[in-house]
Design a protein that fits this description.
The protein has helices spanning 11-24, 29-47, 62-76, 94-105, 139-150, 196-199, 255-267, 279-282, 300-307, 323-333, 344-351, 365-372, 376-381, 383-394, 428-441, 446-468, 479-485, and strands spanning 7-9, 53-58, 80-85, 110-112, 123-127, 155-158, 180-184, 187-188, 202-206, 222-224, 244-248, 272-277, 293-296, 312-315, 339-341, 359-361, 397-400, 405-408, 413-416. It is α/β, with parallel strands linked by helices. The strands form 2 sheets. The protein has a 12-stranded mixed beta sheet, with helices on both faces. The protein starts with 6 loop residues before the first strand and ends with a helix.
Length: 488
C-alpha cells in the first residue's frame, strides 16, 4: 500500500488548499482537474491492466469533470468507454464543462443514466459526488449508486466515494462501495474512520504536483498515527527500570479481563505487573501466567498499599459496578498515578464525572455515549467531534475505539487505521488497556502511549488475522504479535 501523508483535513480546508493552489500559485483549475483524471486513469491501468472497457458515472460538479477527463484518457488508450450522466452535461460549469466538451469533441459516448440500463464494463468509475455533500443522497443519484454497487466489476472512485461525508466518514443515505479511492491534494479525514472502512477500499493519494509550501500555513484537522520504534534498552536494564503496572478489576465471572490486561502489559515490556482482584480467584488467575502477581483485595485500604508500590494503574477490566467496584475505582483514581480507565471504570466515571490531566480514557461508542450523556448514534454521527468533546470534558487523553480509532489529546487529534473486523470479540479492549499501560510504564508520554498502543494493538490483530483469518480471532491471540511489534 502507498505511503500516505500524515496530515488529514476537513473538506473546507481542502477547498482552501485548492484555492491557494489556483489563485496564489497560479495553477489553472483545469490543469489540476486534468492531473486528477490522469492519476485515476493510471491507477486503473496499474490495478486492472487487462480491462478493456470502462463505465464512468458523472454528476454535476467538478467531480464530473474529473470523470470526463478519465473517460477521454481511456478512449485515447483504446478502451471501450461509456459515460452515464446523472446530470445534463451541457449544464456543467467552468472547468467541468470544458472537460465534457473535450470528451465530446473526440466523439465520446454519453448516455443519460436511468436505473433500467444494462451496465457492462470491466471497471466502473464513480465521479458522481465530491466532498461538498451535506445532505442525504436521493433521487437519480441514489439510483446510480445502487446501480454501481450492484455490479460485480471493480469500482474506483474519484476523490471520495459518492455519498460518504468527507468530514465524518458517515454514509449520507447511501454510498458507493469502492475497491479503490484515489483522493487528491489533501487527505480527507472522513476517509479514515467510522463507516468509511466499508466504502473506500484501498486509498491512494495524489498531490497533483501542488507545491509543498501550499500546505504550510494551514493546520491539519487531524493526523494519522504511524509506528514509532521504541528505544533500544540499555544493556544493564533491570525490571525496576521498566515500570510496575497495577490492574484493578476482575469481578467473579470476569476475571479473564484483568488477566488479559495484565499479560498484555507484560508482553509489551512492563517490568512488573500486579493484579488487584477478588480474593476468591486471586490464587487461580496466574496459573498459566505465573509472572503476574495476583492479590486478593476486598477493601480500599488493601488497594492503597498496592497503589503505593506501582507506577501505572489500569482500572476497569472486569471491574463491575458493585459497591466493591466503586470503592476500588475511587481509590485508584485518587492515587495520583497515571491511570488507564477502561470498561466499567468508564461507566463508573460517567456517573460521577471528574477531570484529570494524567489519565487515558478508552471508551467504545457506547461508553462514550454514557460519558457525554447522549446516544451512541450521536457519537457515531461525528466521531472526531465526540473524541474532542470527551477530552475537553474529562482531560487527559481520550480514545474513541472503532474502525479508525481516534486519540484526542490537548496537543492533537489522531486516527489509527490498524485493526480489522476480527477484533469484534470479547477481551480486545482489555488487551488494549494493558498495552497502553505497559508503554506508559516504560516512560512513554500519555499521548504517545495511547497512539502507539492503539496502533500496535490493531497491527497485532492484523498480523494474527493474516495468519489464520479474521473470524474466530481471540484477544489472547494478539499476545505473541504484541511482543514482536514492540521489538521492531
Amino acid at each position: 500500500m502507498q505511503n500516505l501523508p500524515i496530515k488529514l483535513y476537513r473538506a473546507a480546508q481542502v477547498r482552501e488548499l485548492d484555492r491557494i493552489a489556483i489563485q496564489e500559485r497560479g495553477i489553472p483549475g483545469f490543469e489540476l482537474m486534468s492531473r486528477a483524471g490522469s492519476e485515476v486513469f493510471q491507477c486503473i491501468k496499474k490495478r486492472w491492466p487487462d480491462a478493456l472497457s470502462v463505465a464512468v458515472f458523472c454528476g454535476s460538479g467538478n467531480n464530473a469533470g474529473d470523470g470526463y477527463i478519465i473517460a477521454g484518457l481511456a478512449l485515447e488508450a483504446g478502451l471501450n468507454v461509456c459515460v452515464y450522466a446523472v446530470s445534463e452535461p451541457e449544464k456543467l460549469n467552468g472547468d467541468a464543462l470544458i472537460a465534457y466538451r473535450k470528451y465530446n469533441d473526440v466523439h465520446g459516448t454519453v448516455m443519460p443514466f436511468h436505473i433500467e440500463q444494462g451496465i457492462n464494463a470491466d471497471v466502473l468509475v464513480d465521479a458522481l459526488l465530491g466532498t461538498g455533500l451535506d445532505r442525504p443522497v436521493t433521487g437519480l443519484y441514489a439510483e446510480a449508486i445502487q446501480a454501481i454497487n450492484a455490479q460485480s466489476s471493480p469500482i474506483i472512485t474519484v476523490d471520495i466515494p459518492s455519498g460518504l461525508n468527507a468530514d465524518t466518514g458517515n454514509v449520507m443515505g447511501c454510498a458507493v462501495k469502492a475497491d479503490c479511492t484515489v483522493t487528491f491534494i489533501g487527505l480527507k479525514q472522513g476517509l479514515f474512520t467510522g463507516q468509511a472502512a466499508e466504502y473506500c477500499g484501498v486509498i491512494c493519494y495524489a498531490q497533483l504536483a501542488v507545491p509543498d509550501d501550499v500546505f504550510v500555513d494551514l493546520e491539519a484537522a487531524a493526523t494519522r498515527v504511524v509506528k514509532v520504534s521504541l528505544p533500544r534498552r540499555n544493556r544493564d536494564a533491570h525490571k525496576g527500570n521498566c515500570g510496575h503496572v497495577l490492574i484493578v478489576g476482575g469481578e467473579p465471572g470476569y476475571s479473564g479481563a484483568a488477566r488479559m490486561a495484565g499479560e498484555a502489559a507484560l508482553r509489551v515490556g512492563s517490568g512488573l505487573v500486579s493484579i488487584a482482584t477478588r480474593a476468591e480467584h486471586s490464587g487461580l488467575m496466574n496459573l498459566n501466567r505465573p509472572e503476574l502477581m495476583c492479590h486478593g483485595v476486598e477493601t480500599p485500604e488493601q488497594l492503597t498499599a498496592l497503589l503505593a508500590k506501582v507506577d501505572i494503574v489500569v482500572v476497569g477490566p472486569g471491574l463491575g459496578q458493585s459497591d466493591w467496584a466503586k470503592a476500588l475505582f475511587n481509590a485508584a483514581i485518587s492515587a495520583g498515578k497515571p491511570t488507564v480507565v477502561d470498561a466499567d471504570g468508564l461507566n463508573l466515571l460517567a456517573t460521577a464525572p471528574a477531570v484529570k490531566s494524567d489519565w487515558i480514557l478508552t471508551p467504545h461508542p457506547g461508553e462514550a455515549a454514557r460519558l457525554l450523556n447522549c446516544s451512541t448514534a450521536y457519537i457515531q454521527q461525528d466521531r472526531f467531534a465526540a473524541a474532542l468533546s470527551i477530552q475537553a470534558n474529562y482531560g487527559g487523553v481520550a480514545i474513541l475505539k472503532g474502525p479508525g480509532t481516534l486519540i484526542a489529546s490537548e496537543q492533537e487529534l489522531a486516527v489509527s487505521n490498524t485493526g480489522n473486523p476480527g477484533m469484534a470479540s470479547g477481551g480486545m479492549g482489555d488487551v488494549l488497556a494493558g498495552v497502553i499501560a505497559g508503554l506508559l510504564a516504560q516512560g512513554l508520554s500519555l499521548q504517545d502511549a495511547a497512539q502507539q498502543g492503539v496502533y500496535n494493538h490493531g497491527l497485532a490483530a492484523d498480523l494474527a488475522a493474516e495468519k489464520d483469518g479474521e473470524r474466530g480471532l481471540l484477544a489472547s491471540d494478539l499476545m505473541p504479535y504484541l511482543r514482536q511489534l514492540v521489538n521492531w
